[in-house]
Structures are given as structure tokens and as C-alpha cells.
Amino acid sequence: MAYSPLRPARPPRVRPGDGDFAGYAHDRWPRLVVTARLLTEDARDAGELARRTLVRVCARWRRIPRNDVDFHVRRSLVRAHLRGRARRTGGRRRVVLVLRYWEGLGEAEIAQVLGCSVGAVRAVLRREGKRVPAEDRRTEFAAVLAGFVPPAVPLDGIRRDGALRRRRRAGVVAAGCALLLAPSAVLAAGPLGDGGADGAPEVPDRFEPGPVRVVAPGERVAAAPGVDVWLTPDGQHWSSPRARNRFRPVSDGNLDRAVAGVSVQGEKLDDGTYFRSGVYYGLDADPARVEIRTGGRTVTANVLTLAGSPGWGVWYAKTPPEDTAAGGGRTVTVYDASGDALVRSDLGPSVEQPVLVGAWRS
What we know:
By secondary structure, this protein is of the alpha+beta class. It is built from 10 helices and 13 strands.
């Protein structure tokens, strides 16, 4: 039966705790191929693009948060499409149009997928909207898909190639660790002789974006065992086993959003680990990764932001119990898509006791 959508629809989401990649792949494949068909404008290329996307997702399946799989799949699809020829022939413009007028994403969500500013997305939509109205664009996409039937998902091949990619990545990591340890081994053996072309090349430190999720106002996210976080236009809300319905306002002058900054608070969980979170604000670019350095360890935090680019967002992470024993403060760093630090905050002692609504301390 031909695929003939009546209107753009959001893709299905994996239920929290559902670790079945095969089930997700079967459920998501038709919509993924359809989106790939609109991006590539070629049926054969669409199937290959969708297959390569799921291979990458399969290789990283254990590391992807179950309540945010669709974002990672969509971002992987877009990145695979933009590699090579598509980047040089207006591929990003096509991505913006498909995500907006077919997937139904907002400007901030598209910016998060592309790793660019909301202003850049808005400029593309404004320019293209003058040429082709939104409804005509949707009609054009529907016409492209008329009679298009997504092929069956090649699950066996995807899982095989995903496992191979996972093993190769593990080998690269092991080789990188060996290269990093090699200089200390040479120094331990004795003074260095004349260096030169025979030395091992340095492994570049490639920046990897962290988990960034655009949520709807009031949408609850399971951030840690027993801890829910949700955002509304007026600030951050969360509940934990020790206290319910806590709140960090951002719209009443509590945070000076005219300057860049990042806050932090936390509490000890029943398992001995710590749940830490905070609000970033006043940034001149969208954050792509947030890291918290505590007790000699660096933890990549999850990021939540509301659609519409309100100028602030929330980060959260679980940190190990050893962080307090190691001593020292905590440092939170917010990076943009290119890996440059947007803001860094050296923090004092953590807030280990629950702080109720209205009792926040700066």
C-alpha cells in the first residue's frame, strides 16, 4: 500500500525502559525512510541513508537514553545526509524545510538537531517562505511521496553492521589509549632521542555533542531514580524522594539573563550517588554539551530546553559518591557546537539538603 500521509506527524517514541532495538527499528523504519526520501529526493538513496542511520544507532544503542531515542535517530539521519555532496549543494536548507514542514519541528528543535543557532534556522525559513508558502511546501512534499512504499527494514544486516561498527570503535578507543600511554612509557625508559617522522601521530581530540533535548512545557523527564524534572516558561521544576515540587524561577529577576551564567544545586540519593542540576542562561549561542567536573571526574550532563529559545535551559547529571571524598569544588562548563566554552562556573560547596519552593539561595 502506498504511503499517503494526511498531515505531518511526530514519530513514535520508545517507552522508558524499552531496550528492544529490533522493536524500535520495525516501528520507526517507515517514517525514517519517508523523511530520508524527502531529504535525498531519491528513493534508492533514501533506503541506504535510513539503513546507515540505524546502523549507527544500533552501534550506540546501549548509550542512548531510552526517553530520547528519536532525537538521536533524527540527528544521526541529518548528519549522515549532510556528509559529502549534500553539504555542498544546499543540504542544510533542505533539512530545515523537511524538519519544519514535514516533521513539524519548531525552530529551536531544528537548531538543536543541526547544532546551529535558532536565528540561522529562522533566516532559512523566512527566505524560503517568500518563495514558496508553507502549505504549498507541504503539498509539494506529499506529492513527492505519492505512491512511495517504504521497503522492508533490513534488520539482520543493520544489527550485523552495527555490531561490527561497535567493535571497530572499541578498537579505535583502545588504540587511542595506547598512544596516550606511549609517551609516559618512553619517558620511563630513558631520555628521548631525535624525534621526527618515525614518531606516532597525535590523535586529534574531536568534540562530541552531548544529549540535548527539546521538551514541551510541563513534560516530565525521569532524570534519576525517583527524580522527575520538567520545565515551564517561568523556570525549572523537579521532585525527588526527599522533597516534592521544587522550583527554580528564571522569570522574576532571580537570574540575571543579561550576562552568561550557570547555576548548580544537588542532593544525595538513596543509593549514595548525587543528583546535580542547574540552569544556564544569558548565552550567545545554543549549548551543545554540558560537563560537570567533580572529585577528579568529568561527567557529561543531560540538557533540557523549551522550544522557542527562551534564553535559558537546564542541565542535570548523576555523580558518583566518591566526589565528596575527593575534595575540591565543582566546575560546570557549557560548550557550543564547535566545542568552545560558552560559560564556566567554579562552584563552592554543593547543596546537599532539599531546598523547598521559595527558599532558593543564589
